[in-house]
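Q: My labmate handed me this sequence with no annotations at all. I'd like to see what the chain might look like in three dimensions before we decide whether it's worth expressing. Could you predict it?
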Amino acid sequence: MARMKKLLLILLLLLVAFVAIGFALPTQVHVERSVAVARPPAMVFTLLNSYRNFNQWSPWAQADPDAVYRLTGPASGVGAKLSWSGDPALVGEGWQEIVVSEPFEHIGMRLDFGTQGIADSAFRIRGDSLGSRVTWSFDTDVTEGQGVVGGFLGRYFGLFLDDWIGADFEQGLAAFSRYAESLPVIDPAAAEIERVDAEAVRVLMVAGETGAGADEVGAALAEAYGAITAWMAAQGIRQAGQPMAIMHEATGGSAYPFEAAIPVPGAALQAVDETTLAEASPVTAGWSPSGDAVRIIHTGPYDTLADSYERLAAWMSLHGLSRGERSWEVYVSDPGVTPEDQLVTHIYVELAGD
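A: Here is what I predict for the chain of 354 residues:
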């Protein structure tokens, strides 16, 4: 009996100590990890200031491939929001929203994990000789909204958060560094690149296929433009804009479908009957592409257009944008009178819907 009383007393003292220590534990928990990224702060900031790229490197993206993600609010900056819903045992459900956006140094976020509570997170970006140093932090009150018992247990839970969340942060930052460094170095505010709402114009065009080589493209377009201009001359129709080439994704092998197009006044086509136009085969009437697109202004020879396409693709990746099925080039300069190094070409890439 004496031993039993002694054991009960020890257990009681341990329980008292457990409770006393629990209530003495901190309610605030801070976790942070850092990584070096060999890219300039402006580029790093742009990648982190939007959720469009988040699942490219998120440590939780692969944990539940069936999870559903939803982007709302602006594309980047304050108000951009990511909501998710997945397996409760893996990612659960909740949302995070950018609430602070200070170029090119600080991004603050508010996170809501539903019944698991609310937290704040942030990215701090510091430039250095190698590029950038990114610090990802997490702060939460483990007692907020948890009640007395939940708050008490939350204090003990907080003792393990640095290991649990810290491991995820380390994995995510390493993946982010690899992802950022896979992109070419590019100025996110490059003046010659912008998102535009392209306007459709009336065109006469000839469809064809070509290989990807500059010489092949040039020869195919020259032949098509010759057919169009000859028919326009016969009908007395004048040119109303710069020639363009509308390119489509390859249908197989190395053949790329295209339409060579020349803008013309809409009223001029109204005066041409369908029979006359049909007899002009392969010349047809149509519209240029329109809608949401990204444009880069290329200056230089046509055989260097590929460089601008690469820069445009990098810019789109940086801003989390996906290309659609078409791209088109507008040849602003007349190559007959303009030196090669001064030729101006507007390259457009159609954007896929969000």
